[in-house]
Amino acid sequence: MKAMVYRGPYKIRVEDKPMPKIEHPNDAIIKVTTAAICGSDLHLYHGLMPDTRIGHTFGHEFIGVVEEVGPSVQNLKRGDRVMVPFNIYCGSCYFCARGLYSNCHNVNPNATAVGGIYGYSHTTGGYDGGQAEFVRVPFADVGPTIIPDWMDSEDAVLLTDALATGYFGAQLGSIAEGDTVIVFGAGPVGLYAAKSSWLMGAGRVIVIDHLEYRLEKARTFAHAETFNFAEYDDIIVEMKRTTDFLGADVVIDAVGAEADGNFIQQVTGTKLKLQGGSPIALNWAIDSARKGGTVSVVGAYGPIFSAVKFGDALNKGLTLRMNQTPVKRQWPRLFEHIQNGYLKPNDIVTHRIPLEDIAEGYHMFSAKLDNCIKTLIIANPS
Question: Are 286 and 296 in contact (CB under 8 A)?
Answer without folding.
Answer: no
